[in-house]
Specification:
With 362 residues, the chain is α+β, with helices and mostly antiparallel strands. It has three domains: 9-50, no CATH class; 71-174, no CATH class; 199-356, Glutaredoxin (3-Layer(aba) Sandwich). Helices cover 57% and strands 9% of the residues. It is built from 13 helices and seven strands. The chain is globular, with a radius of gyration of 28 Å. The chain starts with 11 loop residues before the first helix and ends in a 6-residue tail after the last helix.
Amino acid sequence: MKACKCTGKKSLFFSILCIILILGTVNCDKIKGFFKRSGKKVENENERERNTVVAYLNGDPVYYRDIEEIVRMSLNRLEERVYQTKLQAVNQYIDDTILDKEAKKDNVTKEAFLEKELSTSIKINEKEVNEFYEKFKDRLQGTEEEKKERLRSIFRRRSMQEAQHDFLQKIKEKYDIKITLPMPEPPLVEGITVDDDPYLGDKDATVTIIEFSDYTCGQCKQASEVMKEIHKEYGDKVKIVYRDFPRNPTAQTMAEAAGCANEQGKFWEYHDKLFFESTKQDRNELLSLAKSVAIKDPKQFESCLDTRKYKDEVEKDRNDGTKTGMMSTPGYVINNRFVAGPKPLDYFKGLVDRYLNGGDNV
């Protein structure tokens, strides 16, 4: 019987195979050679795919390698949508199961249980109904009262959904819930730095989140709240960097104004004003908001804004954001991995916890 000798940590797998093949009909060198040839074959196949001609443009060949980055980003977005669909199903199952358990305690149906628990929480703001009526009355059909009743129905459903969400969050605290659905790994991106942009947390934190955002974007406004929650929960363990990705001239001007506030040490205060109090989004309002955050030198701020001092800085941010392949805001680079679009708090917590624990840190 032929002896089989495999040494070293990398040889553990081959050693196991050697034990299986203890009769000695195959030696370790042949096993290693087989896997080396297999790996080489995969590399050759990948290279062959990259060099495949997929189209011709005016007679010039278009190779797969020319489009593989676009394909990669699209497939990553598809994987993310699949994951979110699965996660939504998991959460729906958990919510329904908990509601069934709570309803059984009262010997009632789930629907009756919810109606009893939420009846006092559902409120309709008549002022809001009237405001929406004045804004959209020409687009609605029926009498004035019929239009308003339709609006009340919409607000009632919205209030019901909000009340149910809050109620579920409260009763779920009594249950031990751990979601283990595997998250798809966000794609790696290169060359995206924190630059010299404002940040929260420790400058040498283990986890860095670079947020690309737009002050005129509604989803970005909501996303900024999520980043506040991350900072509140993790503190100096996570560095949150804000970089601009303006998608229109107004957003560009607002981003430049934020740069002017930053040079006077008021970036985050002004950042919040732009997201949550700006309505006209014009020059006078930008100046007024600067005064409201107690800018030290209003004249310096005004000069900074009018001379567009931070125009190039904002455009640099946007160009860097474009390198990630992002097509909408917000977008994030988390430890060199790109995350597209708004995400719930739990998604970010999952990634942050993984990276804090040393999981797949790049």
